[in-house]
Write a structure and sequence with these properties.
Layout: E1 5-11, H1 32-39, H2 46-51, H3 53-56, E2 71-75, H4 84-91, H5 109-119, E3 124-128, H6 131-145, E4 149-152, E5 157-163, H7 169-183, E6 190-197, E7 205-206, E8 211-214, H8 222-228, E9 233-236, H9 239-242, E10 250-252, H10 257-270, E11 275-280, H11 282-288, H12 293-313, E12 318-323, E13 342-347, E14 355-360, H13 365-373
Parallel strand pairs: 1-11, 1-12, 2-14, 3-4, 5-6, 9-10, 9-11
Antiparallel strand pairs: 2-13, 4-5, 6-7, 6-8, 12-13
């Protein structure tokens, strides 16, 4: 089969069972999809079931089928971490052997000193907290003082929250850019702008103007190789942010999953990109981190209901790959990402019969497959292209 375009969709945080080294990350027993389905008493995902999701792992409401319509399997992460950046980079062929820096006790004085010198601002917080809790704790003090709120998590992130009436988003982005320059040498994965609105602790809420400022990839990715060979890559959602703009020809920001799915459909008809690379973030950002199994399940069902339209509008020479970047199990300890396998479903219109992909050793098998399709140098991983017969 000669493919001319790949649609790669990352369901952010949709893990499918603990990795063998999960205990090292305090994630033993994690299984995002199973626990969400159990918590809601069964989940209805008929289209993903037909593709073979239940063959990867049987879930309440999603059972194995005799002849899945997609190639199906799961992938292990080789990178040392469970961060969004690590996961996406590995999907693009860059395995991170050195973990990104984390600060479970807050950022050290030397970083804060550089932050003050670069921005002229005295921060609030500097603690580990969830994005909603930090606003309840410090939002009103921020309104009274104008000081930006900084906080982190178990991930490698430096997050800066500011009320849009106190520090407008564009000004907040400038603060983040200055902070990004400081943190490159400390190997902090992302600086995240977290604008919010509201008048009191009970009404504060984050807006859709979030922006991530990622450390540049530490080596080449399949996105770079595509662009160097004259292909076009379109990033949808936070893809541009995750790759610091590298290997991205066109970037489309989204406000939620529904917007992201609509943008994917629009690109099918009007975009000449070789690779459409999309991240759907609601599973992780709105539901996994907030321990909301009901919302997580609804969001999965909305994606499932949308899938037939996507598949109907694809061209015969298009390849669809659906996967994830890590887990975000709402039933494990804490509110952070979980070290898990990720599902792998690959479909095209001429695919005949079930094609088990097995347990892949690395997320970078996706990059290797894309590289083989377009006759590019393979950076890492093992292609599964030959397992997609027509």
């Amino acid at each position: 089969m000669m493919f001319r375009r790949v649609i790669l969709i990352v369901l952010d945080g949709v893990g499918i069972g603990e990795l063998p080294d999960a205990a090292r990350f305090n994630d033993q027993g994690a299984h995002t999809l199973l626990h969400v389905a159990e918590q809601v008493g069964g989940i209805s995902l008929p289209n993903l079931q037909r593709l073979g999701l239940g063959n990867i792992a049987a879930l309440p409401g999603v059972v194995p089928v005799d002849r899945p319509s997609a190639a199906w399997g799961k992938m292990a992460e080789q990178s040392q971490g469970k961060d969004t950046t690590n996961g996406h980079w590995e999907l693009a062929g860059l395995v991170t052997s050195t973990p990104m820096a984390t600060y479970p006790d807050g950022f050290p004085g030397e970083i804060l000193k550089e932050f003050r010198a670069a921005t002229g601002l005295e921060p609030l917080g500097n603690i580990v907290a969830s994005g909603t809790d930090i606003l309840r704790q410090l939002g009103e003090e921020h309104l009274a003082t104008g000081r930006p709120i900084i906080y982190t998590s178990a991930d490698s992130v430096f997050q800066i929250a500011a009320h849009e009436s106190i520090i407008p988003p564009e000004q907040l982005y400038d603060i983040c850019r200055k902070t990004r320059k400081i943190l490159d040498s400390y190997r902090v994965s992302r600086v995240i702008a977290r604008p919010f609105i509201g008048r009191s602790a009970d009404t504060f809420c984050r807006t859709s103007r979030r922006h991530d400022f990622a450390i540049p990839p530490a080596g080449p990715t399949v996105l770079d190789r595509l662009v160097e060979a004259g292909h076009r890559v379109t990033g949808i959602g936070k893809i541009r942010d995750i790759f610091a703009g590298r290997g991205i020809c066109d970037a489309i920001s989204t406000v939620n999953n529904a917007d992201g799915m609509q943008q994917i459909l629009s690109c099918l008809d009007h975009d000449d990109a070789t690779l459409l690379f999309a991240n759907l973030v609601d599973f992780d950002m709105l539901y996994g981190h907030r321990l909301d199994s009901d919302g997580f399940a609804r969001s999965l069902e909305e994606f499932d209901q949308w899938l037939p339209e996507l598949m109907q509008r694809m061209r015969p020479e298009d390849l669809l790959i659906v996967t994830a970047d890590h887990g975000c199990d709402p039933l494990t300890n804490g509110t952070e990402h979980t070290r898990e396998y990720v599902p792998l479903l690959a479909w095209h219109q001429q695919l005949l019969g079930a094609a088990p992909l097995g347990i892949r050793e690395s997320f970078s098998d996706v990059a290797a497959t894309i590289a083989e399709i377009f006759a590019l140098e393979q950076l890492s991983g093992k292609s599964f292209l030959t397992l997609l017969p027509d």
